[in-house]
Amino acid sequence: MTDVKAFDSFHVLPVLPESLQPLRDLAMNLRWSWREQAHNLFRSMDPALWSKTGHNPIMMLQQLPASRMNELANDESFLLWMNQEVADLHEYLTKDLWFSKTTAETEDAATSIAYFSMEFGVHQSLPIYSGGLGVLAGDHLKSASDLGVPLVGIGMLYTFGYFSQSLSAEGWQQEIYESHAPETLAVAPVLDEQGNHLEVSVLFPGDRIANIRVWKAAIGRVTLLLLDTNLESNPEDFRSITDRLYGGDVEHRIKQELVLGVGGVRAVQRYCDINGAARPDVYHMNEGHAGFLGIERIGQMIGEGEDWATALATVRASTLFTTHTPVPAGIDRFENHMVERYLQGGDDGTSRLTPGVPVHEVMQLGREDDPSRFNMAHLGLRLAQYANGVAKLHGAVSRGMFKGLYPNFDEPEVPITSITNGVHTPTWTRGPIKPLVNALAGGEELATVEAWKHTDAVTAAELWNVRNELRTELVTRARGLVSDSWQERGAQEAELGWTKNILDPNALTVGFARRVSTYKRLTLMLQQPDRLRAILLNEERPVQFVIAGKAHPADMGGKQLLQELVRFADEAGVRDRIVFIPDYNISMGKFLVAGSDIWLNNPVRPQEASGTSGMKAVMNGGLTLSISDGWWDEVADDEIGWTIPTAPHGDDSQRDRWEAQALYDMLEHEVVPMFYDRDEDGVPQEWIAKVRNSMSQIGARMSAERMVRDYCTELYLPAGRSARMAADRERTRAFAQWKVRIAENWDGVRVLSASAGEAATAAGSASRLQATVDLGALMSSDVAVQGVYGRRGADGELIAPTVVNMTPTSDGNYEVATVVDAPGDYGFTVRVVPAHEMLRSPAELGLVRYA
Ligand SMILES: *Cc1c(COP(=O)(O)O)cnc(C)c1O
User: Fold this and answer.
1) How many structural domains compose the chain?
2) Which of 88, 357, 626, 661, by CA, is between 20 and 30 Å from 238?
3) Dist. CA 497 → ligand 1 center (Å)
4) Which atom in ligand 1 lies closest to the alpha carbon of residue 610?
């Protein structure tokens, strides 16, 4: 630095030589981020600048010195490499993929999906995510691209994104918000028919219009539309709507959600119209944040002259809602008066935000137990005929949590299914293990892995070598990052020599990185500090922990937990065995999950909806040590990992003590001995056998590719079919009227008799179940008469009953033959439920009549 002051200023514009122009196309499609060769191509241009820009090729191209540019422009081998990548991208973007093959020559081929999410974690260089929900949404887009699923993402382009984390000298979390100009990101303006940057708008109270600019990012074959209110034409309070993710107060949050939901529908429709593409027919709300999208769609139909009930039925037929939290406190809720204020009801009671929509009807859709609150998850569920949780256990918990929305039906019949999360294999497998994963997959391309079953293709020694390589990479990087962190905490570089020797590339490494949220119990391991210290400092069989995670800026409790952990590491004489690395993000996640031998997960059951970081560890040959919760609950098996038992009873603190004890026991008696039990070549055979089992048994099951296929076959394609059915307005209007008629006449429905025939039948032979019903004013085509049977519990209740449709034999009489295989005491009853081709589940109307 000099004291010379600038007299004038000038700007040096980047120049991209003609022969290097294709680099810009490569950089503008984030596909490069999951293709190693393309990633390496960019890095090879200038490794230091690559790292300085945070692996952002757009910034690289803007900042690379002209001299280096010219060198590359004349480097034959570089140009050859670049052209190979261009050709590969072209092939990727045009080839025939799973979706088109699967739906060929069926009506399903026409289905297209709009996927709304508040955050998307695609790559570190597109900072519009905070954690698991965003990374999941990013992986969803990538796998949709790999499979050729016609899906458009809709999200927000935040000026500041989420915060970067550092620590104070005392170990207290510091938040830094950096602004990101769109020009430095892999986003391009969406242009309208006149070639202007596309804008849509949303009307806020006081007749104030917020303009929203629409950008697009290319995620392979998938377009991600991003909404941005940071426009000069907006007043300051509107410019800041898209300033940061999960920042600000509830007022800020509701504005964001209105921009995403209402603005997002307008944006995606305009985008399709401009491009002459069909508008999406299926709308997927990834969490309740996007709930208002359904209100906008209803408003559009009312504007076309449709009535409320028909418009609602049409939206429901084509909407999918995914819930991600089993914790009621995790759900977005607003005060009613706030929602009413933003809906802006006029004298006629209809909304000015979404013209024509009756405000009181919208308020009904968001109602919950607390009459003063508007619940975004309830809104989502009431606007969607399709709904799911994100792991099997989470599906069950959600059915319990939301059963009040489907009165008179038991939990198992609540129409919320589950699709277990998955992670995008090419993104989350680290370079050194990719060839082994490919070999395990029988040489198939990663993205088309059916099962990683060719376990003989890889020797134990090969697997172990790669594991050592990945652990060493983690240790090396952690040393550098811990040193950086101490400098930020005020230490002088000269005092930090010790950081060069922290961690041991050969020691059993336990990873733990996730949001610092109370239920995830970051500090469970600190329950008995002396015991932990003994585990860490064992001379023959040392254990080390690498830990990362951000607390939400407003979560003081979370920040305290974090500080407690950092202080323990600082003060307990274990700073070389337990390290906290600040600023957990996608790029850190990649080497952290890959380098850990054990991925530790100890949430309070059943509060972890799914969790995905453990899946990423599996993909890289890490082993799971977890509470039976989220995704692990459905695969937990001693052959592939370790399950920490859950406390049988007790209050929260007894539970934590008990489970921490179980954790220490497992580490001391099972995990550590197995890791250090080596053969004559130094290979831990038993350990590696477990790694092999884990990768081959659950690698493919936990891939986002499996997840997106499941979404397609179980939800998107059925929703596409019902959307097309509902697009026939006559039919939907008749359905809406049918619902009213059914509700009005339900009181007249009676089950007059039910009989299971013989008092005893032999196992395996058929019983004839019979019933007589009186439907009052309803017709037999309005209902299903169902036999319900199952084992009888102590109080005569049916345990996990089977439901079968009975067939009419004569007026009011129904019967069905059933075969019960297992001998025992069974109970039987009959019920009548509404039935209609446009009804997905009998529970939707909350009407049922039992014998
Ligand atoms: C995978 C991932 C998460 C989610 O981890 P969970 O196990 O679901 O808590 C959060 N943040 C980042 C950066 C990730 O990569």
Assistant:
1) 4
2) 357
3) 31
4) 8
